[in-house]
Write a structure and sequence with these properties.
The chain is of the alpha/beta class. It has a seven-stranded parallel beta sheet with strand order 3-2-1-4-5-6-7, with helices on both faces. The protein is globular and about 50 Å long.
Amino acid sequence: MNTLARATDPPPAARTLLVTGASRGIGAAVARLAASPRHGGWDVLVNYTRDAAAAEAVAAEVRERGRRALVVQADVGDEAQVMAMFAALDAAVADGRLAPLRGLVNNAGVVDLPARVDEMSGARIERMFRINVFGSMWCAREAVKRMSTKQGLGGGTVGKGGSIVNLSSAASRLGSPGQYVDYAASKGAIDVFTLGLAREVATEGIRVNAVRPGIIETDIHASGGIPDRARQMAPAVPMQRAGSADEVAAAIVWLLSEEASYTTGAVLDVTGGR
């Protein structure tokens, strides 16, 4: 039986997508694209850490597409803040401001200034893993509790399944020597986490996949001290250009959709061939 959506199929029931780090870059592109009618029109919880105005602007774009949006501030590197974010989500679902959670995009992440490993402080390495790895695991843990069809999770409620997409990086297979070995290692952890969690919840209606972007034009390069890195690295990409946040978002939204209904435990490269 063909399970792919057809133009004549009714729209899916209302559902919410939580996107971490959604105030800019890939996260913002995912929120906008997922809310569009063409992609099933997700309600979106827009998570941000610092830039409230940017997050509100993304939420406004979601609403312009006819969907509901909630903006929640939380640093995913702090477990207590993650728990508070999910409590805010639960409250919004309970009073009808959002639909039940059916999707999570673990997009929030950090990089740092280029350095050799023997130059890295303990604080830098800890921050890298708390945000990029621990934060993704904490968010996935709470999402599973709400989406799993297994009886007894999430305080006794039974979910209706869902999809988790983790953001990895091509750095996880390139290593980023002399620049960001800590970042590359954190993304390698995400690859393994994706595979393990996918197999763990495969019978509970939850699919778990990852997208591994390459050189993408986003603000993260400025955070790493090389704002022009995407342009500088373009000649090293077989396609001879950097990618866009929208191109990565398209892959993520596909993995969230029913068109990817038999895809779990996959790590999809969006790298221009690099």
